[in-house]
Design goal:
single chain; 152 residues; alpha/beta; Nucleotidyltransferase, domain 5; six-stranded mixed beta sheet; 4 helices; 33% strand; globular
Length: 152
């Protein structure tokens, strides 16, 4: 069994804080018989920045995987080098200390977790990006599917 997780984010008006954002997640689980299951999520994020949206997308993705599957091979695909660094190193991020701690806590539940930084937004990553834009639009329209995030 293996699980591939594609995480993307979208923000309005660049990377400044106190703006609307969204995140999208695509989970692809492939069992030992090559049967595939796919789940998709999108969320609006308020009071955010691009890096906070990236962190939140990865945290939501890790939290979305059933506990029984956390011992399997899990690969996160992200556009964010910072998220990859936060999950694979012990480097401290003083700017986003609470979000970093929460992301690492969820990452610690996995036996075999790897992170890949994606530079070409195609395939499942493109779908995750579409979902992030859906989440951004939910936030813009004050949909009830909104998380309120605070800076760290």
């Amino acid at each position: 069994m293996k699980v591939d997780v594609f995480c993307a984010s979208a923000v309005r008006d660049g990377e400044h804080f106190s703006q609307m954002g969204g995140c999208g997640v695509v989970l692809i689980a492939t069992d030992d018989h090559n049967r595939v299951q796919c789940r998709e999520f999108s969320y609006g994020l308020g009071g955010s920045s691009l890096i906070l949206c990236d962190i939140q997308a990865s945290r939501i993705a890790l939290a979305s995987i059933a506990p029984g599957m956390r011992s399997e091979l899990v690969t996160i695909f992200t556009e964010s080098m910072e998220v990859a660094d936060l999950l694979t190193s012990t480097r401290e991020s003083h700017k986003f200390i609470h979000q970093t701690a929460e992301l690492r806590r969820w990452g610690s539940y996995y036996k075999d977790l790897s992170v890949n930084v994606v530079t070409n937004v195609i395939g499942h990553m493109a779908r995750a990006k579409e979902l992030a834009i859906v989440g951004l639009n939910k936030q813009r329209n004050s949909d009830s599917g909104t998380f309120l995030m605070y800076g760290g």
